Amino acid sequence: MGAYILRRLLLVIPTLLGIMIINFTLVQFVPGGPVEQIIAQMEGSGDVFEGIAGGGGDIERQSGGASERYVGARGLPPEFIKELEREFGFDKPPLTRFLNMMGNYLTLDFGESYFRSISVVDLVLEKMPVSISLGLWSTLIAYLVSIPLGIRKAVKDGSTFDTWTSGAIIVAYAIPGFLFAILLLVLFAGGSYWQIFPLRGLTSDNWDSLSLGGKILDYFWHITLPVVASTISAFATLTLLTKNSFLDEIKKHYVMTARAKGLSERRVLYGHVFRNAMLIVIAGFPAVFIGVFFSGSIIIETIFSLDGLGRLGFEAAVARDYPVIFGTLFIFGLMSLVVGILSDLMYVLVDPRIDFESREG
């Protein structure tokens, strides 16, 4: 197992490097960089993308011998624009900038946000509790609901209960998360019907003045709708995985032997089948959590105005805040690759019979 883990760890380096190269290359062809953003703000043109889409004055600049144009820069002296380039590091060729960036990342220096005057690490640490909170509660609730439901469906396989619940979870899986989130806002956050839950944020304005019990209740009051919205699509996969895992185990010989010995159905189900059937479900917890943590956070955090990592990434992409974009990309990419290794370790931990090294051979 040690050799397998070592190989997986060594693969992290080229995989992460490939991710960074592809994204850095794509960014070079995307218009509206940070210099253009500042120029648009100083010229009072609002959004830089309006100038890119059509019209506006421009001014030439020399960069590495190539003539390029900034749209909407009329009236700004070329010296000022060159100073902006030097400040952001755009006076260097792309390859040099990429190598410098990766060299800094090796020393865990992720730079500072262009527009927030705060280091990327501090920014990530500031926003991470919101996203972790959302992802953790969503994953736990998905497991608490899906495992009993999947077991029940396996026991009642082919029954009316199994058919109707399958239809319900498939419909829930098909509903886009953002659409369900908006529906929850309309129904329960004062949109058109009931004002039961708050419209935005993770805490109330009077959070600091609340008692410990009041803070706990206030937190769950705010987190309810975002968690429900981000969990709805996770039920289908976990429920069907649990059901199929139980069905596979129920058909094995040791279950027939246990029944032949006169054990009760409940004893057979929870004393023998449950332990083996749940291995794959439990071992997949890290992957499920990281999936909820990354995939649903951007839309859910934006809709419910939660100041988390998803919203941070979206705002950084809009503002072309490259240190935040690439820094978070590097951190999240590394986390995803490490979680993949942890998932394999979880499989081995819960079932020592699994041997990844022999499978690779």
Automatic annotation (TrEMBL):
It comes from the Bacteria. Keywords: Cell inner membrane, Cell membrane, Membrane, Transmembrane, Transmembrane helix, Transport. One of its GO terms (cellular component) is plasma membrane. InterPro entries: MetI-like, MetI-like_sf. SUPFAM superfamilies: MetI-like. It is a multi-pass membrane protein. The chain crosses the membrane at residues 9-30, 130-151, 163-189, 219-242, 277-304, 324-350. Pfam families: BPD_transp_1. It is found in: Cell inner membrane; Cell membrane. One of its GO terms (biological process) is microcin transport. Residues 128-343 form the ABC transmembrane type-1 domain. PANTHER family: INNER MEMBRANE ABC TRANSPORTER, INNER MEMBRANE ABC TRANSPORTER PERMEASE PROTEIN YEJB. Belongs to the binding-protein-dependent transport system permease family. This is Microcin ABC transporter permease.
